[in-house]
Structure to design on (784 residues):
């Protein structure tokens, strides 16, 4: 801190000296801690000291002016009083505030009550008796002031009677003062009372709202608990009977109800039928086949009809209520429709033995619950439907697969005889055949083979449709040998045409995994199509690697495929215009090829410009990139049956 | 005459198919015998004596499966090493993996190709496995 003082600081330092003196004079005893008590103590210190000093000056001047009165009784009494006031100051400083205050008030009272009755004195002094009364209020309390006031009034009255002094004037004034204090006290008490009552009221309200809150939390918890239980049921219990039994039981227990039953809506018969009830009574009613027509009387059909909760809080007075002999104690009944996406699922019916059991809050909670049950029921219905559909589909599939297995066997067996017998005859093994006969026999063989191919296509497509196509996966298939083999067959198809068959194989082609026979089938199908539709020019079979795929490209210089026909090429049962005109066949070759390629994890597509030819592409995963080929292991029971043929 | 003096035992219930086998195998010089019914096939086989190759149809009348006969034959010590080939009209894509798994030496789809068939049998007798899924699958 700096030691140089500015003028203001010098000024304030002189001011602080006066302050320090005052502080010293008015210092209270350190034991007095209470703020109000401290103020009172300071006030008493100030008042007593000023009074004592003023009285001392007055007394000294009085004696000086009238020395003849110096030895008077009055003078001594006044001097004693002054001493007592000094004593008050000292007592107060020495922590005895209450004693000091009492003494001060005593001196004042004595001064203003007894001095006026000294013969020759003026009764005007009585007026000053109000001072100790007010001081009592300041130093102690209003009650003390009232008490002191009462005492003073009585004393003055008594003194007036005994001493024959006229006290009526000051008495009026004192009585009024005391009366004012009294009214003031009453007013204070009244206000305190009001405040206390208000506080009490606030307390009561607080407690009530707290209880209410607690109750609401409890209810909400219960609501959530039941709702979450139901939700849990939804995910765990798909068996409807089990689900409804659990829900009814839980609801009855959680809400402390007399009876809970769940009705489900039967759309076909337009009735609402009891599906589940709590306890033996519930079982009995379910066994009896309790049901309502939607248009019928009663809370349950009414709620179903209106799609609104229907409540009767005193069933004995409700004409819509049908008394149930099995549930004689029902007094309140609440029926809540269970609706899922605007569709009536059923009705949740709740019964209590208490009148006015169901309030708005209950309806709200139970409505949520009913919605949950509706979802659960709908889920279980859908699950049951899905399961039965699945079973039907599986059965149908199994029947289909067995049929296919038998058909494939039955259709091929006679062809074995037809083709081989005809060949045998054509070879001359059963005696000489002339040229014409031989040509006819070859026509039979050709047609039989064509028939076999058609049968195979139809069977393949049926298998694909039935999801029963399985691949026979071989590892490490050598692409060049496969291509050469396809090319060899392709060349024979072009023997009577002026079309060149070209083969182009890249070096270092990667190996592939797959069903060799099926890949051959796909490539041969594309190649034989190309040969069929090309009248001059070339058919070119290429194989090359592109990124992680081996691409087989079959290009021809044929008529091409019109743009609008291109999307139809890979679609089953849709032959293109030109295909129909020229090729015959089933038109299943390409759709089957597409399925086979995709079953290998590959792709098939075509590029064509009408007039300049077509290129078909087959892309199969190269060995390093081959994923697990899923179809290999899909030997389901149905396909196993097929194998035993 | 690539199958000359080869002894072949054939289980085949269909008459036409037996004729086809006869027509196809007769020119090859093979010695063969048919068993029409699945039941008693083992007894007939033993009566047939030394055998180079056994041909099994997979689905026989009376619900007997070629797989059962396969097991019965394999249970005989003297025939445990004789190659067995399935010749069947069953769907090749299903039957080939199954016969492979079972331990057959081959599968030849019906209709058989008379030009290929003798050679296919010769390869099986020589210890090679032959899996022929039919003409359209020919590789």
């Amino acid at each position: 801190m700096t030691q140089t003082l500015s003028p203001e600081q010098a000024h304030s330092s002189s001011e602080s000296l006066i302050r320090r003196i005052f502080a010293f004079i008015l210092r209270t005893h350190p034991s007095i801690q209470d703020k109000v008590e401290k103020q009172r103590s300071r006030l008493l210190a100030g008042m007593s000291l000023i009074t004592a000093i003023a009285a001392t000056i007055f007394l000294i001047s009085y004696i000086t002016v009238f020395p003849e009165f110096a030895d008077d009784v009055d003078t001594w009494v006044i001097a004693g009083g002054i001493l007592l006031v000094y004593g008050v100051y000292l007592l107060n400083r020495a922590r005895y505030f209450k004693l000091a205050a009492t003494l001060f008030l005593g001196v004042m009272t004595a001064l203003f009550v007894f001095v006026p009755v000294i013969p020759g004195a003026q009764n005007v002094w009585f007026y000053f008796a109000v001072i100790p009364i007010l001081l009592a209020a300041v130093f102690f309390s209003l009650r003390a002031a009232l008490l002191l006031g009462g005492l003073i009034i009585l004393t003055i009255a008594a003194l007036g009677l005994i001493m024959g002094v006229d006290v009526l004037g000051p008495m009026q004034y004192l009585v009024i003062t005391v009366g004012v204090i009294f009214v003031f006290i009453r007013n204070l008490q009244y206000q305190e009372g009001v405040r206390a009552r208000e506080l009490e009221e606030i307390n009561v309200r607080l407690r009530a709202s707290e209880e209410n809150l607690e109750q609401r939390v409890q209810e909400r918890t219960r609501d959530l608990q039941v709702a979450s239980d139901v939700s849990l049921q939804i995910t765990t219990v798909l068996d409807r009977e089990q689900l409804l039994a659990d829900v009814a039981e839980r609801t009855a227990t959680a809400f402390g109800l007399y009876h809970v039953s769940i009705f489900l809506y039967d759309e076909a018969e337009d009735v609402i039928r009891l599906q589940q009830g709590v306890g033996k009574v519930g079982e009995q009613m379910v066994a009896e086949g309790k049901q309502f027509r939607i248009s019928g009387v009663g809370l349950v059909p009414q709620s179903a009809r209106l799609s609104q909760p229907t409540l009767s809080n005193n069933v004995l007075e409700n004409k819509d209520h049908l008394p149930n002999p099995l549930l004689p104690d029902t007094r309140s009944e609440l029926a809540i429709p269970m609706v899922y996406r605007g569709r009536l699922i059923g009705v949740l019916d709740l019964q209590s033995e208490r009148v006015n059991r169901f309030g708005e809050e209950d309806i709200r909670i139970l409505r949520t619950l009913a919605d949950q049950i509706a979802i659960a029921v709908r889920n279980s219905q859908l699950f049951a439907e899905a399961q039965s559909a699945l079973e039907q589909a599986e059965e149908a599939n199994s029947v289909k697969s067995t049929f296919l297995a038998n058909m494939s066997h039955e259709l091929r067996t006679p062809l074995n005889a037809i083709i081989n017998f005809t060949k045998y005859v054509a070879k001359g093994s059963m005696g000489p055949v002339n040229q014409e006969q031989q040509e006819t026999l070859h026509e039979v063989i050709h047609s039989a083979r064509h028939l076999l191919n058609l049968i195979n296509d139809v069977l393949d497509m049926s298998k694909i449709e039935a999801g029963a196509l399985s691949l026979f996966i071989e590892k490490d298939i050598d692409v060049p040998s496969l291509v050469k083999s396809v090319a060899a067959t392709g060349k024979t198809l072009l023997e009577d045409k002026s079309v060149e068959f070209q083969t182009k194989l890249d070096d270092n082609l990667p190996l592939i995994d797959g069903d060799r026979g099926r890949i051959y089938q796909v490539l041969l199908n594309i190649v034989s199509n190309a040969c069929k539709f090309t009248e001059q020019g070339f058919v070119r079979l290429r194989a090359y690697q592109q990124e992680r795929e081996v691409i087989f490209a079959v290009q021809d210089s044929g008529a091409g495929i019109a743009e609008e026909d291109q999307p139809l090429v890979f679609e089953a049962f849709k032959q293109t215009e030109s295909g129909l005109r020229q090729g015959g066949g089933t038109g299943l070759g390409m759709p089957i090829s597409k399925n086979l390629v995709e079953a290998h994890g590959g792709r098939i597509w075509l590029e064509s410009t009408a007039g300049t030819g077509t290129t078909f592409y087959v892309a199969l995963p190269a060995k390093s990139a081959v994923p697990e080929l899923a179809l290999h292991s899909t030997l389901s029971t149905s396909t196993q049956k097929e194998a035993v043929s | 005459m690539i199958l000359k003096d080869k002894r072949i035992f054939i289980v085949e219930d269909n008459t036409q198919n037996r004729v086809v086998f006869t027509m196809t195998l007769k020119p090859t010089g093979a010695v063969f015998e048919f068993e029409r019914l699945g039941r008693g096939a083992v007894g007939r086989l033993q009566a047939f004596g030394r055998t180079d190759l056994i041909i099994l149809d997979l689905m026989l009348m009376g619900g007997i499966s070629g797989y059962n006969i396969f097991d019965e034959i394999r249970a005989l010590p003297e025939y445990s090493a004789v190659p067995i080939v399935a010749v069947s009209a069953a769907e090749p894509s299903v039957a080939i993996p199954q016969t492979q798994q079972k331990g057959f030496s081959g599968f030849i789809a019906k209709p058989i190709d008379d030009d290929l068939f003798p050679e296919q049998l010769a390869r099986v007798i020589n210890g090679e496995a032959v899996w022929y899924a039919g003409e359209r699958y020919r590789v």
Q: What stands out?
A: Residues 168-236 of chain A form the longest helix (69 residues). Chain A touches chain B at residues 404-405, 408-410, 412-421, 423-424, 429, 449, 452-453, 456, 459, 463, 469-472, 482, 485, 489, 515-518, 520-521, 524, 635, 639-640, 642-645 (CB under 8 Å). The radius of gyration of chain A is 59 Å. Residues 117 and 165 of chain A are 7 Å apart (CA to CA).
